[in-house]
Amino acid sequence: MNTRNLALAALAGAVLCSTALTAAEPVKIGFVYVSPVGDAGWTYQHDLGRKQMEAAMKGAVTTKFIENVPEGADAERIIRQLAQDGNQIIFTTSFGYMNPTEKVSKAFPNVTFFHATGYKSGKNMGIYNARFYEGRYLNGVIAGKMTKSNVAGYVAAFPIPEVVMGINAFARGMKSVNPKAEVRVIWVNSWFDPGKEREAAMTLIAQGADMITHHTDSTAVVQAAEEKHKEKGTWAFSYHSDMAKYGPTAQLSGTTHVWGDFYERTVKEVLAKKWTGTNVWGGIKEGMIKIAPMSKSVPADLQKQIVKLEGEIKAGKLHPFAGPVVDQEGKERVAKGSNMSDSDMNAMNYYVQGVASAFPKN
Amino acid sequence: MGTAFISSILFATVVAGTPLIIVALGELVTEKAGVLNLGAEGTMSVGAVAAFAVAHSTGNPFLGILAGMGAGILMSLLFGISALTLMANQVASGLALSIFGVGLSAFIGKPYESVALASVTPISIPLLSQIPVLGPALFQQQGLVYFSWVLLVAVAWFLYRTKAGLVLRAVGESPVSAHSIGYGVVRIRYQAVLFGGAMAGIGGAFMSVFYTPMWVEGMVAGRGWIALSLVVFATWRPARVMIGAYLFGGCMIAQMFVQGSGARINIPAQFLSAIPYAATVLVLVLISRNRSTIRLNSPASLGQTFLPDA
What's domain B3-297's architecture? Predict the structure, then answer.
């Protein structure tokens, strides 16, 4: 064997070695979170999903997350850093990461990006979101049946379609079983301020609401209901996570997000090069939305009814925004016989009938 | 509108104002001694997490308050070493303390994020709590609410009716003069800073043990900064700090009651949320607009470092 052959052999060996290494080395996957993981809430649910996916694909992937990343210039830096560090798939889990994710995705064509709740996608950037409103509708039905004061209170963060959709779905669920029901909304203009969230809940309770729910990030609202449960008979519906731990008597049910199956499915698709760039907006049918276990305070026949309705939503027979959908002013938004389109839902900027408060116009 | 309704607005107003009063009065004393400690937000956060941890593990909310106070003192001691002993810039030291405190509290608080604390039963004051409307609003409150009232009287009395208070104010006006007649400027400033830290710690304890009985990162949510600005807008006068704090709390609660009434009032929610800030600044500026009293009340040496032997 002359030196040239030896060199070739060495080269071949090195190539073999390195391919063997890449095959064995787990694929790195990065997550960007907007808030600390904590023990409940939006980010906590994403982190549960990450752990589920990592456990299911043990050995094939390793994951890494960066929490508490502000939306804006910092986000772009961190997403870029994750891509540079060799993460093959990057999930960015807050609306405000949309533009930074898009920008970085163009600079790293070999990395696949997924952005939650946005509307911009690309060749290597997918969108995913969940149909929160399906769970809200079912919670509303429970509230409509169980309310004594016919008033539900809703503590909400910002008047954007995603939040408004939830309020409207809850109101329609209530109305479907209780024509006298009304929903009152307090905007706290913050995703996360336990003090303010609690005050808002207390205010609603003092003004007669006996059903309380929230679209904010902390457990304060459920805790407030628990505190007032004895005195005022207040019940609560949690959001994002099951918060039964914080409202053992007061929580009747809730709307929870389940991201694990989606993460697992998507990562497998990308690794098998089968990802086709479809945008995912999954609900109860896809297992991305689940209602929190109903407490024993929900009467058995009502529990049965909810399970039945859940099945109908799953089968596509029941749509929370099936026509006629009439807004507060009496204008018909969806005619009888058709369902509201996804794009109309994503642009919702009005309250439906059943919401008492005025819509915060800008 | 029933009386129960008015009571519940007043009740919530007092609760929302209480942490601001306690923290702002502590800061007022610090600033009267000529020291600007911008670390309130961080000190409150550390106080909140320490109080929660102790209240949770001992089951005793009173020990929680003590722990919050202790943590506040330790935090302000850090500030004192940096700004008074090492004579670093007060603004920079205070800002650093705020950022550090918020981060540190998140770090210490990790294991406590998943636990809930039972809410503490309020203390009813006999007789007074029977007064219609005002009774349930003012005299069936948490102990720290009564503490905030006692604190107000004590701080006002100390500053304006005692020799020690006079000396403290002299240190704030002109540390050089105070030093030249033999007062230990740095020692007095240390005491004022530690008092401010203790109050910020108690304010934090109120948040995590009484107001929303839980610990989550970021739960102080800017109240330290609001307390700081209250001191300035109240032109360093204790009673006005209280007026400002209740006004802020009151506007916040009132706008929520407007929203929660279900009445169709077409005001943008963002505007309603901004009202408490705007109203508090406006009212305090109006009642304190006399320039000569502002000059009289604001400590002349505020924020300046003092070199004992210069």
Answer: Orthogonal Bundle (1.10)
> What is the Cα gyration radius of chain B?
20
Partner-chain residue, chosen from A35, A203, A218, that has the shortest CB–CB distance to B253 = A203
ipTM: 0.79
Better-predicted residue by pLDDT, A11 or B280: B280
Closest approach of chain A CAs to the CA of B112, in angstroms?
Answer: 9
Q: Which stretches in chain A have pLDDT values below 70?
A: 1-24, 362
* Parallel/antiparallel/unpaired status of strands A235-240 and A251-257: parallel
Q: What is the pLDDT of residue A319?
A: 96
Cα A276 to Cα A77, A127, A266, B261: the distances in Å are 27, 12, 10, 49
Question: What's the topology of domain A25-130?
Answer: Rossmann fold (3.40.50)
Coarse DSSP helix, strand, coil percentages of chain B, rounded to the nearest 5 percent: 75, 0, 25
Domain with CATH 3.40.50.2300 in chain A: 25-130, 132-256+290-345
| Residue in A33, A34, A39 to test binding to B, most B beta-carbons within 10 Å | A39
Q: Minimal Cα distance from B14: which residue of A?
A: A199
Question: In Å, how far are A31, A41, A97, A114, A301 from A117, measured between CA atoms?
Answer: 15, 16, 10, 10, 35
Instruction: Select the residue from A35, A154, A187, A240 to test the B interface by mutation, using most B Cβ atoms within 10 A.
Output: A187
For the stretch A91-145, pLDDT in tens is 999 988 999 999 999 999 999 999 998 888 899 999 999 999 999 999 999 999 9
